[in-house]
Design brief:
GO molecular function, one term: hydrolase activity
Radius of gyration: 17 Å
CATH architecture: Alpha-Beta Barrel
Strand content: 5-15%
Protein name: Amidohydrolase-related domain-containing protein
Strand order of the largest sheet: 1-2-3-4-5-6-7-8
Distance between the termini: 37 Å
């Protein structure tokens, strides 16, 4: 019998929700099922994973209530939320105390970025840094190529979702991925190796090898992207782990990634 590889200590990207939650008017899909926090924890337990990070889903906008309730009940979880840029420092401090580690920023590919040099945006990212939070980005390549340089002199840590490639153009030669690598080199940017099932399967190992070579395992986190919204009938939790073992075959490197994620989200 083949021994299964050691699982990661932490899943740094998953979504939890119920059908009772309100969808935004522009939600790209509207799941007709529940994936409550209990189901997510059961998936973690079934695969030997100790910790998880609940990631804000654009489908629900700034409705963070369910996530906050989950954090209150389960100390093994951390989360990102979506917030208005005018959120006050006092509210950020309360959220941080509840286990919120960062704010997710995602807009449609056709949407215009905020004024990145303007007072409102600069105030927001400065307040995040002051609160000990990070900014999590799920943006297109052109958007990343503008956003990341604008954050170069900011003190806020940055996490880029989904290899930095899911919504990008030009793959590893595109403007977003180039900006990502330059931002990582500055020392305050991390990348999630998540949602690989949404990218070309034959290219995943190449993507991972490039990120490992240029960013290193201390700057990479793994995430399942459970419950695989939009492809629930074609992806299982076990398959996302198998993909991780395939594209990062060295157990020592996977352990370094886990340790980096634990330090970032929990310690």
């Amino acid at each position: 019998m083949t021994e299964r590889p050691e699982p990661p200590a932490i899943d740094a990207h998953a979504h939890v929700f119920t059908r009772a939650m309100p969808f935004t008017d522009t939600a790209w899909t509207r799941p007709d099922y529940d994936y409550p926090v209990e189901a997510y924890l059961a998936d973690l337990d079934a695969h030997g994973i100790a910790f998880g990070v609940v990631t804000a889903a654009s489908l629900f906008g700034e409705y963070n209530d369910y996530t906050l309730a989950a954090l209150a009940r389960h100390r093994r979880l951390r989360a990102t939320v979506m917030l208005d840029q005018d959120t006050a420092p006092a509210e950020l401090a309360v959220l941080r105390g509840q286990g919120v580690c960062g704010v997710r920023f995602q807009i449609p590919l056709s949407a215009t970025l905020p004024d990145l040099g303007g007072y409102r945006f600069r105030r927001f990212v400065t307040r995040l840094a002051d609160a000990g939070m990070h900014l999590e980005l799920n943006l297109g390549g052109e958007q990343l190529s503008q956003m990341l340089p604008a954050l170069a002199d900011a003190s806020v840590p940055v996490v880029v979702d989904h290899f930095g490639l899911l919504r990008g153009e030009g793959e590893m030669e595109g403007p977003g991925f180039g900006a990502l690598l330059r931002s990582v080199a500055l020392g305050r940017t991390w990348v999630k190796i998540s949602a690989g099932f949404r990218l070309p399967a034959e290219r995943l190992q190449t993507y991972a090898q490039r990120l490992l070579a240029e960013a290193g395992p201390d700057r990479l986190f793994w995430g399942s992207d459970a419950p695989f919204v939009g492809v629930e009938d074609r992806v299982t939790y076990a398959q996302t782990l198998d993909t991780l073992y395939r594209i990062v075959p060295d157990a020592r490197i996977r352990r370094q990634m886990s340790d980096a994620a634990l330090r970032f989200y929990f310690f």
